[in-house]
Backbone:
């Protein structure tokens, strides 16, 4: 992709016994929060409203000062960094986007480089590169104002702006929360592709457990005062929720959600069935199941490089989840539709 890939990758991030007591409050909003995040890891904070997700995240870039504890980036305490250093180290994307309405898209993206004293030329080159990174044509968008962009486009600009100084760490506070479901899915997919190439260390706050599963390398399920109920990979949390609280967060359909994490090639494929329906080998078992349900198909062929290499049916999909989690009887419809591949 762009030269962002050659900039800073991720940094390690450690929070040690971090607490926050807001003034006038008797109980802490966050209490003794300890977590180690690896360089390049995308960690999702998920939990109910008021549990302390945002407070925890905002302490990382010191928008909120911790009452006690320490926060380390590559072993260095953030309290020892001056505000310019913090901006260089930490990009920040929020739901409300926060673009300045009277500034062009270029100017909005160039804010941090300007604050850091970059030359006009270097800033302009970086802005152009970032617009391309988030798939907005610089010729079309640089001179526009935020109001002349759709919500999804504005959100992309918000991501570009956060990436401007190539920070090793990104904080994302419900960044896609205000977009409609279709735009949201598209932004999530784009964001995953982008992260695959830039490998930032990211803390991402969301209310939406499905978003956490889809995006996270690891998910921290939080309860009141930012207590960590479970901190593990999406697959591990879905397969073995630590307690009732985590189970209630997962909600119904844990097996179906797990399917979205398992690629077709991990299943034990049957012989080629000659089915009219097919699925690419790098699709997920959830994609395969959707097609089976949609078409009432007994089996699907699995296609690799244009050639059928095997087949899948409900039994094989169910077996891929392990015998302890059967999908059960599936409703089928004769609904017509296209192929996935
Ligand atoms: N400035 C403040 N002064 C006093 N209390 C606050 C302040 N900001 C947040 N709180 C309280 O701290 C607790 C944690 O709030 P926080 O915003 O971190 O939660 P959250 O999990 O991010 O919630 P949401 O998902 O609704 O944004 C809440 O009880 C909230 O009322």
Residues:
């Amino acid at each position: 992709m762009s030269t962002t890939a050659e900039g800073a990758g991720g940094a390690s991030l450690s929070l040690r016994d971090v607490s926050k007591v807001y003034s006038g409050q008797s109980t802490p909003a966050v209490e003794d929060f300890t977590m180690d995040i690896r360089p390049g890891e995308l960690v999702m904070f998920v939990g109910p409203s008021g549990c302390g997700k945002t407070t925890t995240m905002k302490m990382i870039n010191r928008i909120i000062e911790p009452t006690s504890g320490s926060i380390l980036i590559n072993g260095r305490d953030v309290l020892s960094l001056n505000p310019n250093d913090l901006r260089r180290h930490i990009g920040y994307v929020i739901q409300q986007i926060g673009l300045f309405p009277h500034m062009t898209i270029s100017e909005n993206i160039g804010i941090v480089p300007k604050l850091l004293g970059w030359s006009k030329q270097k800033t302009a080159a970086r802005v152009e590169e970032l617009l391309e990174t988030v798939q907005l044509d610089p010729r079309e968008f640089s001179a526009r104002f935020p109001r002349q962009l759709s919500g999804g486009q504005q959100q992309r600009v918000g991501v570009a702006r956060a990436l401007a100084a190539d920070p090793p760490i990104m904080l994302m506070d419900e960044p896609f929360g205000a977009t409609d479901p279709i735009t949201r899915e598209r932004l999530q997919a784009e964001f995953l592709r982008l992260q695959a190439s830039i490998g930032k260390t990211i803390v991402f706050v969301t209310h939406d457990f499905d978003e956490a599963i889809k995006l996270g390398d690891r998910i921290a399920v939080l309860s009141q005062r930012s207590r960590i109920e479970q901190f593990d990979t999406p697959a591990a949390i879905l397969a073995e929720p630590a307690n009732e609280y985590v189970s209630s967060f997962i909600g119904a359909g844990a097996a179906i959600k797990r399917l979205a994490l398992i690629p077709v090639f991990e299943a034990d494929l049957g012989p080629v069935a000659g089915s009219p329906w097919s699925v690419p080998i790098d699709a997920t078992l959830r994609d395969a199941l959707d097609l089976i349900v949609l078409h009432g198909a007994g089996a699907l062929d699995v296609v690799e490089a244009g050639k059928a290499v095997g087949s899948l049916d409900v039994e094989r999909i169910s077996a891929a989840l392990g015998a302890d989690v059967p999908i059960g009887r599936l409703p089928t419809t004769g609904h017509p539709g296209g192929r996935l591949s």
Summary: The chain is about 35% helix and 20% strand. The longest helix spans residues 181-198. Residues 269 and 311 are 5 Å apart (CA to CA).
